[in-house]
User: Which sequence fits this backbone?
């Protein structure tokens, strides 16, 4: 009985940590993929203009500004103070409210980065224990399927919500993670931060993250399915 509880703890913990790692890994990869930003910036428009034209800078300057902003999110000592020639006028790029909001975003990202690393380490350690102790991949597969049933059910509901009413989803997301202030409410006509990542950009980003996450889950499922058939139950 004690042995069964010990194995189940390992299987459940590994399943949950891998799912967390797959989710946070997908989020981090796409949120900091500058090629994705460049593609979206060239494709999307704001009020009939390209994003760069709407801001009042060149495409190359928009790429540099995107790089500067993303680098800030991974550096707890960085500053968002930056001046650029925007629409022919040298000015500070971000307002105080935009900078304050980005402090919240950076703090959230730094926590996510730590969780990503921790979940990866736990996955490696527990997988090593399973191999060293010669535990059953077939039993792990059974537990993983049960955990996935609940997680993917939640993801399915979330995906339907995103497709049907992205604005409602996005508002609820900000109320959850940025409770206590409304600094995230920005103006597409005057706030450069939201011009860099307008609502349509976030819509495409979230959908891409979900697809990537589901793809990783599918690969992990099929890998375990293969292993449980190849390795004998202990």
Assistant:
């Amino acid at each position: 009985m004690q042995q069964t509880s010990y194995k189940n703890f390992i299987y459940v913990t590994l399943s949950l940590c891998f799912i967390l790692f797959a989710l946070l890994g997908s989020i981090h990869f796409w949120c900091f993929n500058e090629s994705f930003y460049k593609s979206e910036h060239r494709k999307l428009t704001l009020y009939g203009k390209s994003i760069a034209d709407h801001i009042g800078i060149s495409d190359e300057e928009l790429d540099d500004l995107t790089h500067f902003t993303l680098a800030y999110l991974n550096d707890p000592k960085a500053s968002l103070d930056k001046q650029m020639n925007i629409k022919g006028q040298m000015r500070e790029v971000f307002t105080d409210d935009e900078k304050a909001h980005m402090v919240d975003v950076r703090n959230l990202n730094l926590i996510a980065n730590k969780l990503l690393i921790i979940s990866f380490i736990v996955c490696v350690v527990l997988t090593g224990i399973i191999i060293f102790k010669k535990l059953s991949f077939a039993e792990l597969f059974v537990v993983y399927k049960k955990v996935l049933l609940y997680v993917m059910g939640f993801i399915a509901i979330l995906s339907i919500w995103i497709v049907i009413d992205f604005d409602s989803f996005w508002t609820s997301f900000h109320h959850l993670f940025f409770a206590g202030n409304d600094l995230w409410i920005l103006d597409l006509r005057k706030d450069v931060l939201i011009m860099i990542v307008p609502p349509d950009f976030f819509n495409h980003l979230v959908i891409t993250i979900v697809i990537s996450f589901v793809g990783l889950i599918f690969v992990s499922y099929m890998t375990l399915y293969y292993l449980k058939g190849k390795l004998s139950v202990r």
Q: What stands out?
A: Residues 208 and 221 are 20 Å apart (CA to CA).
